[in-house]
Amino acid sequence: MTEWIDDRRLLFIAYVETTFLVGIGAIGWIVMNGLPSGSVRTDILIIPILIALVTLLTVGPLVWNYYLGKDPLEPVVIMGGLFFLYYPVNAFGITILNFGGVFPAFRNSSHLLGPFLHSLLLISGGVVAFYVGYEGVSKRGKHLLPQLNRRRLLVPNLLLVWLVSSSIYALSMIGVLSRSNEFVTLVARWHYFVPAAILFLYFQSERNGFQTIAMIGIIAIEILLFTVFSFKMGHLLIFSILLLLVYHYAGPGISYTHILGLGLALVASFPVSEIIERLHTGYPLSEAIFLPGSTIASYVRPFTGRLIGTEALTMIIARTPKQVPYQHGETLLLTVYSFVPRVIWSGKPSIIMCARNNQYFSGRGINAETCAAMTVPGELYWNFGGLGVLIGLFVLGISVGLLYRWFRMEMNGSSGIVPIILYGIALIYVMQFESGIAQMFSAMGKELLFALIFFAIVTENDGTGIFDRDGETTIQKSSIFAFTQYVHSRIWNWISYSASYSLFKRIFSTFLYIRDTKNIIKYEIVFSSRTISFFRSLFLICRTGFHTSKCYQALQTIYYYIRTSRTYKILLGP
After folding, report:
1. Is residue 545 part of a domain?
2. Total domains in the fold of the chain
3. Stated pTM of the model
């Protein structure tokens, strides 16, 4: 045991010393020489130094958790391995392996060395900002969000939903149902959740032969859907990540020895996906695996080329603001716009950022058939520059930290499948760094909403409820509730004593008497319309908490007094 701890301590010390020396070397070189100009293919020492620095920073949480024996799937570890590690891997493929870039504008330019090094430095700072934000909130604090009820899975409902959802998915793949219909797409994605739920049941109950056969059969059918029937690499990864989370948090769990294997499997999935796609296009198996003239580099290139983080950020830094102006938050507003249905707003702008990337940065042109998004750090830079990247990744770190804190509290209380799936969905969309910010949060919000509908169908409350022994709901115990109560009271006081309130009071006033079960409380309600009057009365009654019966009684009383008031009759007649 002592040797095991000493080995981990030595590894951690070696990591810290190496990172410190590489960081000092990078800073010293830049102070002495500045950021050079020229081509990214220039043979210059600072390129491998910065690639090594970013790599060391990204794997820092993995080394730290390994040293302390903590959760190997903590989101800060996953974000380091699947989000930020994309940047040095992409830079390594472009420069050290000399693969070049995938963007035409990047390949055809010979003056991108400065922006390229700038992007690596910026990501180094962004990685640190993300980790600082995450560590500040993930390990301690009160309940931030309401806790979930404990839910019990209904196996017949689960199997029926899986059958319906997988059928819809298959019909959409062959063109019978439109894949552009968002409702169809979201319902079709329910079948991702079912294998994870079945695996959860397998770990939580007494295992028998029938359960094992059913679980293996459903998982096998899902794999066939994602590979043989219609290959979708992204769908297969989502499916695999949900199974991995269930295996880790509800089953035996994975160790750090498994992390290396998972990483190698992820790397291998890119050339394997290329082989499967060739099979789908009609290549014989031998040619799909060994293309004429193929080399080892041709199998590595799909992996490094797919991770376009450094390349995209380099082009944005190179062209902003000289050729393309800063957006000052305009693209971030697309997150709000995305939740407005097109039925209401027919001219709603598209939230897909890859078209903008083609138009302004990648060089492919606005009418290109293929495109790649500018990534989250790239979009942050396009809006607010380098400071925007640092602040944005710091806020993202806080968000992921709060998510993990909520998840740990849920797992300590209920250990149910519901928090695992909801946590997995949120984590999956955050890890999809190549999408835009609006795409990420819009897709995440809609997926979470439909996941809640899914669980409303396939689960039932186990009877514990959301009330604690003292009668206070978990909603009222949450920090968000306390914060909204504070904001509401401050806004309410401002409205009550503002000049506009006094003006409305002279023009129009009426009195509403709200009868409670114990007391008669008199409220003076003054506003310029009956709608505002109604909502203000509702806030007054419900400001002390979400008590359903009390609010319902208050609404009945408010409705009665509004309908019988002299003002109502004057405005709307009897």
Report:
1. yes
2. 1
3. 0.75
